[in-house]
């Protein structure tokens, strides 16, 4: 496994967000995926660095994630 070259957060794991997140991971990047839909998060839980259930519209959600 290659070392991660950059860190990314993808907010929204619909069709577009999933494609962006998985492509970034494929190139060896650290990618955190955030979505408020538990199903979207669970579909990517084993593919992304972490995948988190959170509302990306809430500032407190980002504080809680660090």
Question: Can you offer a commentary on this structure?
Answer:
This protein is globular. The protein is built from three helices and three strands. It has a three-stranded parallel β-sheet with strand order 1-2-3, with helices on one face. The termini are far apart. It has 66 residues and is α/β, with parallel strands linked by helices.
Calculate Rg over CA atoms.
11 Å
Write down the overall geometry.
globular
Figure out the total of helices: 3
Q: Which percent range describes the beta-strand content?
A: 15-25%
Structural class: alpha/beta
Q: How many angstroms does the end-to-end distance come to? A: 25 Å
How many strands appear in the DSSP assignment? 3
Largest sheet: 3 strands, parallel
By oligomeric state, this entry counts as single chain
Low-pLDDT stretches are: none
Q: Share of helix among residues?
A: 25-40%
Mean pLDDT across residues? 88
Instruction: Strand order, main sheet: write it out.
Output: 1-2-3
């Amino acid at each position: 496994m290659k070392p991660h070259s950059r860190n990314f957060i993808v907010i929204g794991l619909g069709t577009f967000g999933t494609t962006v997140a998985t492509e970034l991971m494929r190139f060896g990047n650290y990618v955190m995926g955030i979505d408020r839909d538990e199903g979207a998060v669970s579909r990517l839980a084993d593919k992304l660095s972490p995948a988190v259930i959170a509302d990306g519209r809430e500032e407190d959600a980002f504080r809680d994630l660090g």
